[in-house]
Amino acid sequence: MWRLARREPLQPAVSAVRRRIGAFIAHRTGEARDFFLLGIWYSGLARGGVPVSVCPLATPGVIWHGINGDGQGWRADRELRRAYTWPPCSGR
Q1: Together in a domain, 34 and 69
Q2: How far apart are CA 92 and CA 18, in angstroms?
Q3: Which of 21, 81, 82, 86 is the most exposed place for a label (fewest CB within 10 A)?
Q4: Is the whole-model pTM more than 0.85?
């Protein structure tokens, strides 16, 4: 909440939470390699049906610039809009 209020990037906070969850999973299972399970699960969900169902809302530009605190000014750049458009969204 503090980062949002101060308009700071959220990426460091998100990364810290993911590391803690990964460490918790590895601790509970007793296998160090299970630290990476959260990232594997997340990638599987992200590449599955979730992005397709919210295609206009989940473009990489919205996500990337939102997490890094850059705002939505990238939308004015035609090259960036073209680069960030996903193939499932291109028909719209």
Answers
A1: no
A2: 34
A3: 82
A4: no
Q: Which two tokens stand for residue 73?
A: 């000014």
Do 1 and 39 share a domain, yes or no? yes
**Closest residue by Cα to residue 60 from 40, 39, 88:** 88
Scored b (16 or more CB within 10 A) or e, 20-44 reads eebeebbeeeeeeebbeebeeeeee
Q: Which residue is listed with tokens 């509970």?
A: 28
Cα 76 to Cα 74: distance, rounded to the nearest angstrom:
5
